[in-house]
Design a protein that fits this description.
Length: about 525
């Protein structure tokens, strides 16, 4: 191992950055759907050794940037699939999206490796500072501007239901800290010295391995005594119609697409089903403005039940004689009489998908929304808990609203379950829908709330309040699932109560450690 470390330290110039790029790309295979977690150890151990060979801050920053560019570039390749739905209109944006977004996000990794270099930490301290700086960079990526916390490194460790339970305490950002800390720790095994000093290097690695074992055992015991049960007298019918994106909004197919949902939702002989759920924009019309259609949809449910369906919503505002339409991406709950008894408007909109930031400027450059249509969607009022007939209070998340840790429930009234409706047909048969489903599932474990997910095509399913998958569909299949609704935990999880405060405490401890190391190093240099 010492020989390999020396070889990596000696690599310079473009070869160093190419190796960093390759190691970052390798880490991507730890994410869903592959879950090849050994790649984390190879990738982060190699990154530490590369940083050991960087003698200047600039080279350390560049090594981190190339590592991040490889990790995020390969992890976000599926964006090209969305842009290929209408290549003649937005295909020219592919290089900017597939290369530009990872290039920008990789800056957070460059700042992390720069922090490691500037700290002057060595050995175990170097690994601790890297884990803390990496986690701080991920938190920043998830919150800056509109935030994009996709493919946080902690998702590389969620294949195990037992290990997933860590997120109920520190969330996915905190899990990411642990992942980097443990994955990079083998880097401390390589080094020169007498046999006794080499033997002592096994101590930190042994502690890291023991920590993982303790967390796994703790998660296993937590799940062993978990017998949550289901909400009585509630059976949900999840409808995944599997409509291709290039067919979804074609004028000549709108009625046929809607008829497909009607056919799949038929409750003939299904008296147990109480609520039917359709995915994001399953209804291609303004349902709130079409009483005839809402009555037809309402008749799909059994007495006392509801159809919960995604549909656009519009409003007309009069201003100086003009009537510009405003459109929201919404979910409506329709009772058997056709009345809309509850609605939610998406509040966290997708940049370039549902609106164009800096529209006056970017429109001059030819930048358009990926989705067809004039104008932008309007943002809703934020996380809302709906009280719907026959159901516990529910928090609704439309599409990628489910990827934001700590921001999926209302502060005013906590829900008893989460409903995520989405349309992942944009991403085809890529890793994107698998990653999206995994992120939504982690929100269940973090919050201690069951999650029901209904996708047009993608992956639909149910996760209980511990994040365990109760059932799910396959990617790209037409499916109807009748599922019970699991009950939530008796009390909110620590993460639901404290949010990222646990991560903040960890980062503060790392900062104190880094400052102490830096001060000691400065004192030695001035002696």
């Amino acid at each position: 191992m010492a020989w390999l470390r020396r070889r990596l330290i000696d690599i310079e110039g473009w070869r160093r950055y190419l190796l960093a790029f390759a190691l970052g790309a390798l880490v991507t295979v730890s994410l869903p759907p592959l879950h090849a977690w050994p790649a984390l150890i190879v990738g982060f151990t190699g990154l530490v050794w590369i940083l050991d060979g960087c003698t200047r801050p600039g080279s350390a920053s560049l090594a981190g940037w190339w590592f991040g560019f490889g990790y995020l570039g390969f992890g976000l390749y599926w964006i090209a699939s969305a842009l290929m739905i209408e290549p003649e209109r937005v295909g020219w944006m592919i290089p900017f999206a597939v290369l530009g977004l990872p290039a920008v996000f990789a800056v957070s990794v460059a700042l992390a490796t720069l922090t490691v270099h500037v700290s002057g930490a060595r050995g175990v301290g170097r690994v601790i500072v890297l884990a803390g700086a990496w986690s701080a960079g991920e938190w920043l990526r998830g919150h800056a501007f509109t935030g994009f916390p996709w493919n946080l490194v902690g998702y590389g460790a969620i294949a195990s239901d037992a290990f997933l339970q860590v997120t109920a305490v520190v969330g996915i950002y905190g899990l990411g800290f642990l992942v980097v800390l443990v994955s990079a720790m083998p880097a401390t095994l390589a080094g020169e010295g007498d046999p006794a000093s080499r033997l002592r290097r096994f101590g930190p690695v042994a502690v890291a391995a023991a920590s993982i074992a303790v967390l796994w055992i703790g998660g296993t015991l937590r799940l062993a005594v978990a017998d949550l049960g289901n909400v009585p007298d509630v059976t949900l019918r999840l409808v995944q119609a599997n409509i291709a994106q290039h067919h979804k909004w074609r004028e000549d197919r709108l009625r046929a697409n809607l008829a497909r949902y009607f056919r799949l939702s038929s409750l003939s002989g299904s008296d147990a089903v109480t609520h039917v759920i359709w995915p994001e924009t399953a209804v291609p019309y303004f349902l709130a403005s079409d009483s005839r259609l809402s009555r037809e949809i309402g008749r799909l449910t059994n007495p006392g039940g509801l159809v919960i369906a995604g549909a656009p919503r519009t409003a007309i505002e009069r201003d100086n004689g003009e009537t510009p339409p405003r459109i929201w991406n919404s979910v409506h709950a329709v009772d058997r009489a056709g009345r809309i008894v509850g609605s939610y408007d998406k509040s966290h909109l997708l940049p370039f998908g549902e609106y164009v930031p800096f529209r006056p400027l970017l429109r001059r450059l030819g930048v358009e929304r990926i989705a067809s249509g004039q104008g932008d969607f309007q943002a809703g009022r934020g996380n809302t808990t709906l009280n719907l007939p026959g159901l516990p209070p529910v928090g609704i998340l439309i599409c990628y609203e489910a990827i934001f840790p700590g921001d999926v429930t209302s502060d005013a009234a906590r829900p008893r379950w989460l409903l995520n409706v989405t349309n992942d047909a944009w991403f085809g048969r890529t890793a994107g829908p698998h990653q999206h489903f995994a992120m939504a599932r982690v929100r269940a474990a973090e919050e201690g709330l069951p999650l029901v997910r209904v996708a047009n095509t993608g992956i639909s399913g149910v996760a209980d309040a511990h994040g365990r998958i109760v059932l799910k569909t396959a990617l790209g299949e037409t499916a109807v699932i009748d599922a019970p609704l699991p009950i939530p935990l008796d009390r909110p999880t620590l993460y639901a109560r404290w949010g990222d405060s646990g991560l903040l405490a960890i980062l503060l401890a790392v900062l104190i450690h880094a400052v102490a190391v830096g001060v000691r190093g400065l004192a030695r240099r001035t002696e």
